[in-house]
Amino acid sequence: MTQESLTSKSVFRALQAVILVIGASSILSVHAQSFQPTCPIEAAYASLEGRGLYVQGGVFNSGQEHNEAFMIDLSESWDINKPKYKKLPNGFNHSYTPSGITSDGKLWTVLASEVGVRYSADSNSWKEIFRFDTYGLFGLTGATDHETNMMYIPFGFANADRTKGMLRVDLKTGDTTSDRKSYPMNKQDQYAAAWNPLRKSVIYVGDNNVLEYTWEQGWKPFFKEGLDVLPYWDGCLVSVSGGKKMALFGGASADGNPIGDIYVLDLTKKGKERWTKASVDSTQKSQIARLRASCGSTGDQVIISGGSAIPRGRGFQCSKQRTLVFNVETMKWMDRYVAPKK
């Protein structure tokens, strides 16, 4: 055998090795990006500015509950058709229940039926942390103060006379306390609620009520001018721009149809606080409309994941455009989420 043929064979084998290495690395890369979560409908969710939107449980299109858990990475930028997901260990089967995460992202608490469960980032696992008599948690939402790591759940506590008060959960210790003062509402579930860090209060939108709550003073009316979507159910509310603005998205109208609008309230305009509805065309609205989605925020952006695109009470169907991003400064729907500068 000649030196030339040996050299040719050596080159050929080297090329084969390179191709195998490239192929293997490509397979690993594809595998790392292959996780696609179940569309979150009626999921428990919690958001951390610039870190992640955490989603657990919910229902399939069939209506069956599941226990999947994942996080949408908000520390990196991505296109709305290719969000960056991180799979988390499966949690507990439940749907439409409150959830809150500590400011350091290490402890994520979900109130599933009559059980309080917690995900620990350190151990990468879930465990039951307490049990309680049922408060009727279905359709309730948690609003988390990340300064104190307290989650507030409107109507999460049931009094002996069947009126309902505020349930407060310490996300560090799991301890619960209750405020028995109730507010006279016809409907006390399927509302939207969020913590506003500037006002240091819970903002609430549900049925025909737009309210504000503090532990010390209880309930009082909140700004509702411009909010032409009342009565309102099954949407989500988030604080944006450090609490300078609030954004109310999606939900169900009085006839049960999914809403394809987002409303923004600018709290810096003292004496002129008014909800403003973003303008969209009919085609865009049909892609946006949904109820019972998962929502979070970072900077001036609202991040929405999942939700059902068919009328309430007629089953479930995942929205075709699963992930949405809205900018409250430009009042525009965006094709890309932009992460904060590091």
In short:
This protein has 342 residues and is mainly β. The chain has helices at 3-33, 282-288; strands at 44-48, 52-56, 69-73, 78-79, 85-88, 99-101, 107-112, 115-120, 125-131, 143-145, 150-158, 164-170, 176-179, 192-196, 201-206, 209-214, 218-221, 236-240, 245-249, 262-266, 275-277, 294-298, 301-305, 323-327, 332-334, 336-337.
Describe it.
The structure is a single chain. Helices cover 11% and strands 37% of the residues. It is built from two helices and 26 strands. It has a four-stranded antiparallel beta sheet with strand order 1-2-3-5, with no helix packed on it. Strand 11 and strand 12 (164-170) form a beta hairpin. The relative contact order is 0.13.
Beta-strand portion reads 35-45%
Number of helices: 2
Separation of termini?
60 Å
By helix and strand content, what is the structural category?
A: mainly beta
Number of strand segments: 26
List the helices and strands and how they pair.
Blueprint: H1 3-33, E1 44-48, E2 52-56, E3 69-73, E4 78-79, E5 85-88, E6 99-101, E7 107-112, E8 115-120, E9 125-131, E10 143-145, E11 150-158, E12 164-170, E13 176-179, E14 192-196, E15 201-206, E16 209-214, E17 218-221, E18 236-240, E19 245-249, E20 262-266, E21 275-277, H2 282-288, E22 294-298, E23 301-305, E24 323-327, E25 332-334, E26 336-337
Antiparallel strand pairs: 1-2, 2-3, 3-5, 4-26, 6-7, 7-8, 8-9, 10-11, 11-12, 12-13, 14-15, 15-16, 16-17, 18-19, 19-20, 20-21, 22-23, 23-24, 24-25
